[in-house]
Amino acid sequence: MFKKVYLPVLILITILICPSQLQAAKDSGDVAAKIDKDVITMSELNKAAESDLMPLASQIYDIKKKRLDQMVEDKLYELEAKKQKTSVEALKAEINKGDEDMSDDAIEVYYDLNKAQFGNRPLEQVKAQIKNLLIRRKLDKSNDEFLAGLRKKYNVEVMLEEPKMELDIDGYPSRGPDNAKVTVVEFTDFQCPFCKRFKDTIDQLVEEYPNDVKHVFHHLPLPMHRNAKGAHHASVCADRQGKFWEMREVLFNNATALERENLNKYAGEVGLDMDAFSKCMEDPEIDKYLDDAASYAQSVGARGTPTSFVNGTLFRGAQPYEQLKQVVETKLK
Hints:
Elements: H1 2-17, H2 21-28, E1 31-35, E2 38-41, H3 42-48, H4 50-83, H5 88-95, H6 104-113, H7 123-153, E3 174-175, E4 182-188, H8 193-208, E5 213-219, H9 228-240, H10 244-253, H11 260-269, H12 274-281, H13 284-299, E6 307-310, E7 313-316, H14 321-332
Parallel strand pairs: 4-5
Antiparallel strand pairs: 1-2, 3-5, 4-6, 6-7
Domain Thioredoxin: 137-333
Family: Belongs to the thioredoxin family. DsbA subfamily.
Signal peptide: 1-24
């Protein structure tokens, strides 16, 4: 009798004591939306919006990093000025002492090397401009070197973390050691002129850091480039014969001539088995692979080319070599 009367009550109490997904999410403050008895959590929302938020997160980071660098610099000058029992202004003046002038010889050398930059105007017309430029560079160099010393002296540690995207790199063409400290993941299009420029930058980087940089190639042929998908299809076929990087070189060097008949010619140039290549070019599975690759690119925020990630940090466009090198150097420290 006891069981008959109280069992439903016990079940109800158990339900109330053991919270549902909705109640648990409410308690944790993790509810983004409620639909009948189901919930969409903030964690699920953040995951779904990750690729859309990545560019914004990168912009926010850049703004904070710039501000933080300035704040750290100001604090270092204050600490060192206090230590030397002087003012910040006097300290900076001492650092820059002797850097406020520039010799005529240095100005002439710079002018001779960069005439085109000044529209081939006579030296006298641009001398003051060049002098100011060279003095600015000299002052910046002195200050950078001084601050680098202060960073070590006062044990500067930066805890501000860059936003990072976890990327799938397995099964994609890659070069460089698997244990490299820096991984550059590139989303690119063989018919994109900016991608050709960035390709040269990547090649230079891999050559300069053979033991520290791994380069991963992701296919992203854009719909607006009518021959791009065929070119990427050809590169996958070349990859099957162990000739991806040779084909990549030829395709980028002939980015304005990627019609099918030309792809056959390039396959012959890199030494592919032409029968196998012809059959591969008709393989619908590769078209599906490229479509999936494009969808994946969209999912991680790569919506234009070139897009790259350096250790998960997003960079859009054809980054200049010196800028990319600086990023790599920072990651290596």
